[in-house]
Amino acid sequence: MPLVPLELLLDASPLPPKVTALLADAAVRIDAYFANRAAGTDGFVPCDHELVYRALQSLRADASVGRRWCEWGSGFGVVAGLAALLGFDACGIEVDGTLVTASRELLAAHALRVEIWPGSFVPDAYAASERLSDLETRTVLSQGDAYGDMERDIDDFDVIYAYPWPTEEEQYCDLFRRHADVGSVLLTFSRTEGVRAYRKVAGPGRRHRCP
Ligand SMILES: C[S@@+](CC[C@H](N)C(=O)[O-])C[C@H]1O[C@@H](n2cnc3c(N)ncnc32)[C@H](O)[C@@H]1O
User: Fold this and answer.
1) Which end of the chain is more exposed for a tag (fewer CB within 10 A), N or C?
2) What domains appear along the chain, each with residue ranges and CATH number?
3) How far is 127 from 154, CA to CA, in rounded Å?
4) Is the whole-model pTM more than 0.85?
5) Which residues pair with 145 in a beta bridge?
6) Helix (H) or strand (E) holding 35
7) What is the pLDDT of residue 130?
């Protein structure tokens, strides 16, 4: 089934105080994390939080987009927190235990009801059937998925957000195309391309290419 691009209308109005407060606190905590993190833990790179917030605002204003929202690789939980502030029913999946703890602390400090689930967002069966290996990707593939504990699957969400490495975008799109519900939206951030959104629609489509 194909993914079709969804137009994002990026607002430039002042950020609400709760958003400003979350971003300011997150910046301090993320700086401290980078100053102290252990060698070899280089999987976390934060996106442009304000830009992703603008994209989320656009999706929230679109009546055809539902509220069940999940972040694949939620890092510090900032984007999940922004989604919650916009009224999404947000959760995150994060494989790094230090980041699970740090994100839960940040979200609790701002009284944001966002569940962060430890584990992988890559379904076990997908990782096995595609013969994916940690050697070829920065996405961790050797840990079990979180969906059993969550009692939800990828097709239970209306919006998935992810920040893949440039070489991983096709894989993330393929995973979304195969497992997400028809009508749901994949929002991605890229340092070079910015924010992009795709909707999964019914019908025949290309298998391994993002639009
Ligand atoms: C590039 S960072 C993006 C962080 C955050 N989503 C953002 O946009 O600012 C990727 C995150 O995915 C996490 N990650 C990598 N592989 C994962 C997996 N299989 N399941 C869950 N999280 C994963 C990393 O630990 C890291 O926190």
Assistant:
1) C
2) 3-200 (3.40.50.150)
3) 14
4) yes
5) 120
6) helix 17-36
7) 75
The phi and psi torsions of 159 (rounded to 5 degrees) equal -135, 130
**pLDDT recorded at residue 109:** 98
Is 163:189 a contact under the CB 8 Å cutoff? Answer: yes
CB atoms inside a 10 Å sphere around CB 159:
25
Query: What would the two tokens of residue 160 be?
Result: 């998935």
- Contacts of residue 177, Cβ cutoff 8 Å, sequence gap at least 6: 1, 2, 3, 200, 205, 207
Q: How far apart are CA 162 and CA 185, in angstroms?
A: 11
Non-local CB neighbours of 37 within 8 Å, separated by 6+ positions:
98
Q: What residues does ligand 1 touch, defined as CB less than 6 Å away?
A: 43-47, 71, 73-75, 79, 93-96, 99, 120-122, 139-140, 163, 189
**Nearest Cα residue to atom 22 of ligand 1:** 73
| Arithmetic mean of pLDDT, 52-61 | 98
Q: Name the band, by pLDDT with cuts 50, 70 and 90, for residue 118.
A: very high
**Torsion angles phi and psi, residue 199, rounded to 5:** -110, 135
Output the CA torsion 198→202→208→211 (10° steps). -40
Do 106 and 84 contact (CB within 8 A), yes or no? no
Instruction: Give 3-state DSSP helix, strand, coil % of the chain, rounded to 5.
Output: 40, 20, 45
CA of 163 to the centre of ligand 1 (A): 7
